[in-house]
Amino acid sequence: MAFLADALKRVKPSATITITQKARDLKAQGKDVISLSVGEPDFDTPDNIKEAAIAAIRRGETKYTPVSGIPQLREAITRKFKRENGLDYKANQVIVSTGGKHVIYNALLATLNPGDEVICVSPYWVSYPEMVALCGGTATFAETKIENEFKLQPEELERAITPKTKWVILNSPSNPSGAAYSRAEMKKLTDVLMRHPHVWVLTDDMYEHLVYGDFEFVTPAQVEPGLYDRTLTMNGVSKSYAMTGWRIGYAAGPQHLMNAMDLVQGQQTSGTSAISQWAAVEALDGTQEHLPIFKKAFERRRDLVVSMLNQTRGLVCPKPEGAFYVYPDCSALIGKTMPNGKVIETDEDLVMGILENEAVAAVHGSAFGLGPNFRISYATSDEKLEEACRRIQRFCAELR
Ligand SMILES: Cc1ncc(COP(=O)(O)O)c(C=O)c1O
Fold it and tell me: Which fold has domain 6-44+290-398?
């Protein structure tokens, strides 16, 4: 009898974590590594949020909370959905979990039966297919193209839907491409979904606030109210409030789904940290004055990185609307030879070559299901980004 569960055979370790570890190892050997592989803002959590957590500790808010979250946070979340997305949810339609990742995991665990399919849009966030596999479902894929700026086209969505499709996971702005859907683009997708009433929508809106220029963020149930009864609208404080370590994600959806997710969570974690929940109340209800500062920095860095990568031999880099990632195409470099004589056969070879020769960590596109590309996270200082791009330029120029 095998000791480890068969389910684990279907799950790959996170490529982003593997690369980050390799970068750490090189750093420990004394190399000046610039890590562009992690999906985490380099800003500190705003002070008003930290103070709210400290005040919660002093008040003694340090005990178990209701499984789906403290009423004060669930109310704050309903206000957020109304104010920012025009969506009406009652507090008992809201769940708070241990990060956005946990929300998705709960939803899949609560709904997937063997054979159920979940459509992931390539390039996808690395965790979606693995979470689907862990929950006993089957991930299927709808591909995007660089010509469409990595945005899913309605025909491709239509093609990917089968009678077994239970969910489609949408993610705008996207990790890893940064692509975000305008209202008109989203409407074309929701029109397709309206024709397939058995398909549920899991919308991962983690990067909602990180959109640049005059781009207007939209979420599916807002664009098509007809989808409200089969949409789980997921969001969190990790990225927009620089709160990755506080582990707060949340979602709202139809009551029967939320009850099922509450049941799952009740037997898993009993709910997330009380202190973090009080901090999240302040994040959502308190001043939002840090946001324009974050956005301005990210927009400037996006423009810097896109411009420098587009001046790099063999790379083509679209300029995305949001998040803090770019996803350059490196197909022109496949088949080239590195200074050590090794031929670059895949985007992973290229990323490893850049890491080993120039000490810049990025993540290969094959980890996100679409390549040859790689992902750069520009959530780091302008100086480091400029230096990293110069190193990438030098590496690519030296390939033969
Ligand atoms: C698209 C996307 N969804 C969800 C998450 C998970 O967020 P959290 O850290 O709140 O679990 C991430 C984090 O990288 C992400 O990029």
Answer: Aspartate Aminotransferase, domain 1 (3.90.1150)
Tell me if 238 CB under 6 Å of ligand 1. Answer: yes
Q: Of ligand 1's atoms, which has the minimum distance to the CA of residue 40?
A: 14
> Residue 53 and residue 179: Cα distance in Å, rounded?
34
Atom of ligand 1 nearest to the CA of 204: 3
Report d(CA 26, CA 6) in Å as an integer: 34
Confidence at 26, pLDDT banded by 50, 70, 90: very high
Which amino acid residue places its CA nearest to atom 14 of ligand 1? Answer: 39
Q: Whose CA is nearest to atom 1 of ligand 1?
A: 175
Q: Is residue 316 packed enough to be buried (19+ CB in 10 Å), middle (13-18) or exposed (0-12)?
A: middle
The answer, yes or no, to whether any atom of ligand 1 lies below 6 A from the CB of 125, is yes
Q: Which structure tokens are listed for 200?
A: 């549920």
Whether ligand 1 lies within 6 angstroms of the CB of 171 is answered as yes
**Residue among 213, 212, 123 nearest 175 (CA):** 123
Q: Are strands 249-252 and 231-236 parallel, antiparallel or unpaired?
A: antiparallel
Domain 59-285 class, CATH top level: alpha beta
Contact 247, 273 (CB under 8 A): yes
Measured from the CB, is residue 127 less than 6 Å from ligand 1? no
User: Residue 176's pLDDT band (boundaries 50, 70, 90)?
Assistant: very high
Domain coordinates in residue numbering, the chain: 6-44+290-398, 59-285
The three-state secondary structure class of 165 is strand
Give the nearest ligand 1 atom to 39 CA: 14
Nearest 5°: the CA angle 265, 103, 105 is 80
pLDDT of 34 higher than 80: yes
Q: Read off the pTM.
A: 0.96
What is the C-alpha separation between 366 and 348, in angstroms, rounded? 7
- Ligand 1 and 180: CB distance under 6 A: no
- Report how far residue 108's alpha carbon sits from residue 136's, in angstroms, rounded to the nearest whole number: 9
The reply to whether ligand 1 has any atom less than 6 angstroms from the CB of 39 is yes
378: Cβ below 6 Å to ligand 1? Answer: no
Tokens of 85: 């997305």
